[in-house]
Amino acid sequence: MKNLPAAILAAHAAIRPHVPVSPLERSGALSQALGCEVWLKCDHLLPIGAFKVRGAANKIRVLGDAARATGVVTASTGNHGMAVAWAGARAGVPVTVYVPASAVQGKLDAIEGLGAKLVVLDAPPIEGERQARRYGAAHGVPYISPYNDIDVVAGQGTIGVEIAEQAGADALDAVFVCVGGGGLASGLGSAIKHWSPRTRVVGVWPENSPCMLRALEAGRILDVPEFPTLSDATAGAVEEGSITFPLCQQVIDERITVSEAEIGAAMRAVAQAEHWMVEGAAGVALAGLMQRREAWRGKKIGVVLCGRNIGLERFIGAVGAALPGQSR
After folding, report:
1. Are residues 315 and 272 in the same domain?
2. pLDDT digit string (tens) for 122-173?
3. Rounded CA separation 242/77 (Å)
4. Phi, psi at residue 261, to the nearest 5°?
5. Bridge partners of 117?
6. Phi and psi at residue 324, in whole multiples of 5°?
7. Does this model's pTM top 0.90?
8. Closest CA to 233 of 129, 320, 309, 157
9. Which of 83, 160, 163, 289 registers the highest number of CB atoms within 10 A of its CB?
10. Residue 325 pLDDT more than 80?
11. Prior bond of 17 cis (ω within 30°)
């Protein structure tokens, strides 16, 4: 594995200006409610509305001429596919995305709208990864994993460099981040450990999809039962041999699981405090802090709002038909 901090720093410079630096903003309302200084890392404001654009842009930029000509294939539950389609469109690289039939329709529409070809499978997300990888190997087309790719992880790690630069000498005490396949957590965590070593990395999982968590607990990747979750962006099993597994072992300091009700409450809290509609994966990170608020009272805490790609009806169903203060 290449020197990851160096790869992250290279990506941090190279993906600009296409991927802007996302804001790190203090939330006065959430800070007052939770008894700590809450700083929101606003990756939901990035192009395609999710952090995934970081890793996709970095991977597409390092492709050779042959790969640019053949195009690339990937697998996704939505945001990664959108990100690769977005980056591919800007670089003139054809993109094919394998997706589960259970994926959010709005995300599938967005992938097609960005010019990518969809292959829809009536199968779990991990099967889409396997089939996309097999297709790539059979046809000489590079496969871009949503997480099991060092260039993708390095791109996601740019969020950690930004946090360290934005927080400055007054470093954050902790950063709360959702965990799925581990690309975001391992990239961000690797950057934080290098550039802001006193900051703790807190990984948060939905109770209904704790695949990487169970792997970390067992010391090996294993099959884990999953159930539907608002955090569809973190759903899906972890590929055997994934580079993110040992990285998550190294960089995640604390582990938390949150219920679907807690995720919905966190999404609602962001809407009330900041008037932002964020998706379930972003709610997962804040839900972890809301659950452990007493342990972090008086501290300076970062929360990664990783995406905003959720349909209005699903959002309303998650947070309640009407927010407090609104007429019914």
Report:
1. yes
2. 988 889 999 999 999 999 999 999 999 999 999 999 999 999 999 987 899 9
3. 18
4. -65, -40
5. 96
6. -55, 140
7. yes
8. 309
9. 83
10. no
11. yes
